[in-house]
């Protein structure tokens, strides 16, 4: 195979054709289309991954990677907590009691979910809670609320608030909800509006007293794990000894949400890959027009001894040069776009909706490889048909008539 001839012809056909400018314009459009498609895919996948990672970080903090819960019976006690801490020293445990409650300050009220926790244990696994209580000395009936609740109720340091619980107390011939005065000590900001407006924290001892639970009673145990998918299997095996207790992972609690995000990501990948597919149609049309306009040259090359493989390789290489150049430029533009968006606050997001005011970006290597493989396959397929078409020219007929 004469590679010198192939390279010479490819370079000649890549030059702007003044006699048939539409062929060169079509090739330029194909190049631009592939570049834009690759760039948009890279930036979009980075945004999708970054958004998913940001939500996972927020949900990890407020929902926790793993949670042990009581299926039935009298909840969870210190014996089980101590057993799990000895059995799994690599995990961090924070037992809790939870209850729905209404908080009142002056004439304003707000509802939510209150957690009774051990402040030291909770601070080790919940960075948002740790930040809110960093310089505070918390007593039994002290209260930490979300920033949404404190703003709504106009709370300030050491404000006295009244908590109303869903449990009832007998009061003569009627039942009254349990209530207790708490001291407001501070607030946290998770970046997610749903948590900031509903979550509250106090001591486990306070809720035990109010709800009349045993001294070692817990509703569940929040667990921090660096490898939740494997640790849940070990915990499930260990908790088989305790039939009244189960364990659940963050992906099970928020499965529908992340399934929807994964589906959206796949759909966007397919839709945006169509940009490259449409651009490849320009490659096909450009190569076919080149074949038609160069019929005489192709016939001469074949009559002078060029093989069908060499003719096919000329047009295949021509399509590959156009397509791969677009992929390379598109990749450069994609990473440049990520750099610009990551370092300059061009796009600002509402933090209460997306969990962050900065556009999150995180390009996964698997997604990048998938983009490259998909683009290469489309370019190769779009270049092959015109290349094979060029070898089916009737040499004698072309030379006789042209």
From TrEMBL:
Its main location: membrane. Coiled coil: none annotated. Residues 270-394 form the ABC3 transporter permease C-terminal domain. It is a multi-pass membrane protein. The chain crosses the membrane at residues 21-48, 267-293, 314-341, 365-385. It is found in: Cell membrane. GO terms for cellular component: plasma membrane protein complex. Keywords: Cell membrane, Membrane, Transmembrane, Transmembrane helix. The keyword Transmembrane applies. It comes from the Bacteria. One of its GO terms (biological process) is lipoprotein localization to outer membrane. Belongs to the ABC-4 integral membrane protein family. LolC/E subfamily. This is ABC3 transporter permease C-terminal domain-containing protein.
């Amino acid at each position: 195979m004469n590679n010198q001839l192939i390279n010479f012809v490819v370079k000649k056909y890549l030059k702007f054709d003044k006699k048939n400018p539409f062929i060169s314009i079509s090739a330029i459009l194909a190049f631009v289309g592939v570049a834009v498609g690759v760039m948009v895919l890279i930036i979009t996948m980075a945004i999708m991954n970054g958004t998913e990672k940001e939500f996972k970080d927020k949900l990890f903090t407020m929902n926790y990677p793993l949670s042990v819960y009581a299926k039935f019976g009298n909840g969870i006690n210190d014996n089980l907590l101590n057993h799990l801490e000895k059995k799994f020293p690599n995990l961090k445990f924070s037992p809790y009691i939870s209850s729905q409650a209404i908080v009142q300050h002056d004439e304003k009220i707000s509802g939510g979910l209150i957690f009774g926790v051990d402040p030291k244990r909770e601070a080790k696994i919940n960075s948002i809670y740790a930040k809110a209580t960093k310089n505070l000395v918390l007593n039994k009936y002290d209260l930490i609320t979300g920033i949404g609740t404190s703003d709504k109720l106009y709370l300030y340091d050491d404000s006295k608030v009244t908590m109303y619980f869903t449990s009832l107390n007998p009061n003569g011939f009627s039942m009254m909800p349990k209530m207790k005065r708490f001291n407001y000590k501070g607030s946290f900001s998770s970046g997610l509006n749903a948590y900031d407006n509903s979550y509250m924290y106090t001591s486990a001892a306070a809720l035990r007293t109010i709800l009349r639970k045993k001294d070692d009673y817990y509703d569940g145990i929040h667990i921090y794990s660096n490898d939740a998918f494997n640790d849940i299997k070990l915990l499930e095996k260990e908790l088989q000894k305790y039939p009244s207790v189960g364990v659940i992972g963050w992906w099970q609690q928020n499965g529908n949400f992340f399934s929807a995000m994964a589906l959206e990501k796949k759909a966007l990948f397919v839709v945006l890959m169509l940009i490259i597919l449409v651009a490849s149609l320009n490659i096909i049309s450009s190569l076919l027009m080149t074949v038609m306009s160069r019929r005489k040259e192709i016939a001469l090359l074949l009559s002078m001894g060029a093989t069908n493989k060499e003719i096919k390789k000329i047009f295949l290489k021509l399509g590959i040069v156009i397509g791969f150049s677009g992929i390379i430029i598109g990749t450069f533009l994609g990473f440049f776009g990520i750099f610009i968006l990551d370092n300059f606050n061009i796009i600002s997001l509402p933090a209460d909706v997306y969990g962050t005011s900065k556009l999150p970006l995180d390009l996964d290597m698997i997604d990048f490889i998938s983009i490259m493989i998909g683009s290469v396959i489309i370019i190769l397929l779009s270049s092959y048909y015109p290349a094979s078409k060029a070898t089916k020219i009737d040499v004698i007929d072309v030379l006789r008539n042209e």
